Amino acid sequence: MRYAILVCLKDLLQRMRDRTAILTAIVAPLALTALMGFALGGSHGGSGMRLGIADLDHSEESAAFVRFVEQQSPRGTVLIEPVDSLAAAERMIKEHAAECAVVMNTGFAKALISGDKPPVEILAARGEEFAMLATRGLLRDFMNRAAMPRDRVTPEVAPVTAGGQMRVVDFFAMSMAVLFLNFGVLSGVRALQAEIDLRTIVRLVASPARPHAIVAGKFTALLIIGLVQMGTMIAATSLLFGTHWGNRLATAALVFTSVLMAIGLTAFLMSLAGNADQGNALATLVIVLLSIVGGQFLPPQGLPDIFETLSRLTPNGQSFFGFMDLSAAGAHGSLLTIAEPLAVTALVGFIGIALAGLRANATLQRMT
Hints:
Elements: H1 2-16, H2 19-39, E1 49-55, H3 60-70, E2 78-83, H4 86-94, E3 100-104, H5 108-114, E4 120-124, H6 129-147, H7 168-198, H8 202-205, H9 211-241, H10 248-272, H11 276-293, H12 305-311, H13 315-329, H14 339-367
Parallel strand pairs: 1-2, 1-3
Antiparallel strand pairs: 3-4
Helix pairs in contact: 1-9, 2-7, 2-9, 6-13, 7-9, 7-10, 7-11, 7-13, 9-10, 9-14, 10-11, 10-13, 10-14, 13-14
């Protein structure tokens, strides 16, 4: 343990002196966030999200959802527009009288009580994907609360801070944070591989430190660097752009698993190559391709639903959309909101780190 800590501290000191790494981890993503975010639209919905609600079930449960959403109205973040039919909701969306609409069809209460998926339709105007995410977050949180009590009393409605204020700049804040997390970690993994290629790591191998302690120290340093990078990005975007990242506990958990994912993905790709340069090229190519498929370069406004489905098939897409879901849900967000992103990113991270760690440990043992 002592040698692993010493190796970790040595790597951290080296990274602190690397100005290129700091530019890649912090300066570049912040600059791109500001440039792309404000150039493509700046803020969105500053006066609040207009939400049409059609209660076609006329039950206590459907009325409870309306009251649940009304708790946001005093803050001006969710402006409710009642409608009496699906056609009226569709007309409201087409005329841009609301960014989003919820239609609770007959059977909403029955399905909620039985634990089935309620017959609910969410409509969104073209280009209002962020409003759609916020509305899904509200509905998901209400359904989770309704499912908890088994005596089926009407879910308690508590005032909470609303989501729904996501802007284009917020999209790119989260997008660039995840994208450059991968590149920041890749820089550290490449440095490790370069030490092996140049055999400068032989000095560590010749020390009393065992190979597995060296590997553990190296990966711990990468973990700390990734956490500091993400923490700095979250703090900086919150202060500079006013980005809301959502529930702090859930955000912290997703940050941790996202860093694990970045380490596992880049380390595994690097381990497949013959040297640091080949590994860096391979990892860079894969990261860029995954980022394109993961929807991190273009807001999903107006794109088909299949685009989001494909995005969530990638580990970085899971991380990115997890942060999006948390931001859209606001204080409604919880660990349950991001259960899938947490599981996927953690799984990819642990598997990648385990495989890369085994290969690195075997390489170091051959040097002894």
